[in-house]
Design brief:
Blueprint lengths: L2 H5 L6 E5 L4 H12 L3 E6 L2 H13 L4 E5 L5 H15 L4 E4 L17 H29 L2 E6 L12 H21 L4 E8 L5 H14 L6 H7 L12 H11 L11 E4 L7
Parallel strand pairs: 1-2, 1-4, 2-3, 4-5, 5-6, 6-7
The structure holds nicotinamide-adenine-dinucleotide.
Nicotinamide-adenine-dinucleotide binds next to helix 2 and helix 7.
């Protein structure tokens, strides 16, 4: 075991990571597994979830995969039941699943009513459903860690993307409310606010932006890189960066941290 793995030790812990079939969630799952946790990979895309669970297993970790739609409370109940049945318990829940809007949102210059509804169903109610589904189990055990993936967009409204930024502000706020509610049971609830990562979500954001501005010269990646100018450290973040923060917040080293929102964004937000 490396020194880094020893520093954040999740051996013997079981984690559920929603939306971990791709992107940031996949990176979080890998990092938690490296720190010793058994990880339940939950995603609406079951094939992607199984593929990530296979990656973890081929690296020598214990992992299972299941399908979940976090917008549906029956589905999050089943997810928790399945994780407990297959891995024995749940110590850590990472609410990572998120979307930019309803199908076709990249075609629209401003959020439609359907976009507002969809981001609240998944980015906000998804956190509520999954947290409520696991809360009694954690309460019975007198411990637990919940980490919600919010966004820098939740810190400052995004023009043309208000539905998304408002949903992420709500994710930060519901983190605080649940932190109060679950503190008597020694359950910590925190959020992480990633800055910009070159995942499927940002591929879509770049495509939308280029379409809106009529820019047929630049590539999506070039538009993404223009954003580096507003980041003090001048670079993008990676799923591993987010995974490192989540692993810390999910560990006993963070036992006295709750209700916080941690920016992982190269200094783009300093509050
Ligand atoms: N990429 C960024 O720059 C960035 C920045 C800040 C915050 N975030 C947030 O990080 C999280 C992960 O984003 P990403 O960039 O990895 O996006 P992504 O699109 O690559 O991955 C999202 C994952 O969530 C899954 N998912 C979608 N709807 C679901 C549902 N209803 N139930 C279960 N799973 C569902 C998808 O299948 C996919 O595997 C999101 O909450 C996003 O808002 C991303």
């Amino acid at each position: 075991m490396t020194t880094e793995q020893k520093y954040i030790d999740l051996a013997g812990k079981v984690a559920i990571v929603t939306g971990s079939g791709n992107g940031i969630g996949r990176g979080i799952a890998h990092r938690l597994a490296q720190a010793g946790a058994d990880v339940f990979i939950a995603d609406i895309d079951l094939a992607a979830a199984k593929s990530v669970a296979d990656e973890l297993k081929s690296n020598g970790h214990r992992s299972e995969a299941g399908k979940v739609d976090v917008a549906d409370t029956d589905s999050t109940e089943s997810m928790v039941y399945e994780a407990i049945s297959k891995l024995g318990k749940v110590d850590i829940l990472v609410n990572n699943a998120g979307v930019g809007g309803a199908p076709g949102w990249t075609e629209r210059t401003a959020g439609s009513v359907e976009d507002w509804m969809k981001v609240f169903e998944i980015n906000v109610l998804g956190i509520v459903h999954a947290s409520k589904s696991v809360a009694q189990h954690m309460i019975d055990r007198g411990s637990g860690k919940i980490v919600n993936i919010a966004s820098g967009a939740g810190r400052r409204g995004s023009p043309g993307f208000a539905h998304y930024s408002t949903s992420k502000a709500s994710a930060i706020n519901v983190t605080q409310a649940f932190a109060y509610e679950l503190a008597p049971h020694k359950i910590n609830v925190n959020s992480v606010c990633p800055g910009i990562l070159w995942t499927n979500l940002w591929h879509d954001i770049s495509d939308r932006r280029l379409r809106m501005t009529g820019d047929s010269e630049s590539s999506g990646r070039e538009y993404f890189e223009q954003r580096f100018d507003s980041i003090p450290l001048g670079r993008e973040q990676t799923p591993e960066d987010i995974g490192n923060a989540v692993a810390f917040l999910a560990s006993d080293r963070a036992r006295n941290i709750t209700g916080q929102a941690l920016n992982i964004d190269g200094g783009a937000m300093m509050n």
